[in-house]
Amino acid sequence: MFIGITLAFVSSCKDDSTTTYRSFISPMTGLNVPSGNEFEVKVQFGAEQKVDSVVYLIDTVKMISKADTSAIKLKTEGLKLGNHLVTAKIFGAGKSEDLTSNINVLAAQVPMEYTYKVIKTLPHDTSSYVEGLEYHDGFFYESAGDYGHSSLRKVEPSTGKILQKADLDKQYFGEGITVIGNKIIQLTYREKVGFVYDKATFKKLSEFSYTIGREGWGLAFDGEKVLNTDGSNTIFFLNKDTYQKIGSIDVFDNKGAIQNLNELEIIDGKIYANVYTTNEILIINPATGAVESKIDLSGLLPADYFKTEDEKANNVLNGIAYDKASKRLFVAGKKWPHIFQIELIKK
What does the DSSP assignment read for 122-141? Predict the structure, then answer.
């Protein structure tokens, strides 16, 4: 309102009749709109120049053309979650002018909330700074991080015994892993490189350049493509053979973007993602990025298990694995003494 008053005052002081003062009244920059809802578009046109027509666009797509300057409503149906540019292209007196604003499309529904029940407590090596965890053929496959301590491991679930191990050179910080057929793919944190191993022997077969995200974080495989996080609210889709980007989704709940997406798992067609430094796992729609559910895993470890503030800040929940055959869900954390088999319970 203050801006509008100021602009009107300035306009009254000008002698140049060709000067225009046009701006969006709505949407205000950064307006949050639930997916599927309409939003009002209204422009302050001023009286300095004749308006012949106005074309409204979302991003680069023409939505509607108007021969008058009345307010309209635009739909968000079919738009990806996240930020979208709204443009009013104004035509008159043989000229055109673009005005822009933007909206954020959010998930339409409030996420369902879950807690958990511990079904089984399994031993875990407390030297492992867990960055990736998967379950295949009766074994855990685990990526341990931290410079000088990073490794790829095959672990016996019942005992926590390390059956196979491939250590990374000390300049690498191991991150997310996923199994693709007879190969294991492992990312590194800031080194912009990924490794490909033979699943049976842990022999390193090749390396590949990783430049898709700002850093290498989580990995998962849905049977067709690789999913990857970089600590933002984006989940990247990678080609399963070249590990290059083929798409992405941005993750939002009904309030906004969810940052710090980390460890990933695919369960019954949904994406499960750990939110780094929290006790929360999200269940995400893989087509839209909408957060459908949230799992609160607070209390898995005693509150006083880690003694120092540094340990508490760093040794957080980070590990999701799923046994498809027996439909068992496992979760873990960095340097935790246990891997927990849990069952989800609606709050």
Answer: EE--TT--EEEEEEETTEEE
Question: In angstroms, what CA-CA distances link 341 with 54, 210, 285, 297, 335?
Answer: 59, 32, 23, 12, 17
Buried b (16+ CB within 10 A) or exposed e, 192-221: eebbbbebeebeeeeeeebebbebbbbbbb
Give start and end residues of each alpha helix (H) in the chain: 2-12, 309-314
**Beta-ladder partners of 290:** 252
β-strand pairing of 95-106 with 31-34 = parallel
Q: Do 116 and 293 touch, CB atoms closer than 8 A?
A: no
**Other Cβ atoms within 10 Å of 311 Cβ, number:** 13
Q: pLDDT (tens digit, 9 = 90+) per residue, 88-116? A: 999 988 889 999 999 999 999 999 999 99
Phi, psi angle pair for 10, to nearest 5°: -60, -40
Q: What pTM did the predictor assign?
A: 0.89
CA distance 161 to 42: 65
Q: How does 148-182 read in b/e, with b if 16+ C-beta sit within 10 Å? A: eebbbbbbebeebebeeebebeeebbbbbbbbbee
Rounded to a whole number of angstroms, the CA Rg of the chain reads 26
One-letter amino acid of 195: F
**Amino acid residing at 281:** I
> In whole angstroms, what is the distance from residue 272 CA to residue 328 CA?
14
Burial annotation 10-44 (CB, 10 A radius, 16+ → b, else e):
eeeeeeeeeebbbebeebeeebebebeeebebebe
**Cβ atoms of residues 131 and 146 within 8 Å:** no
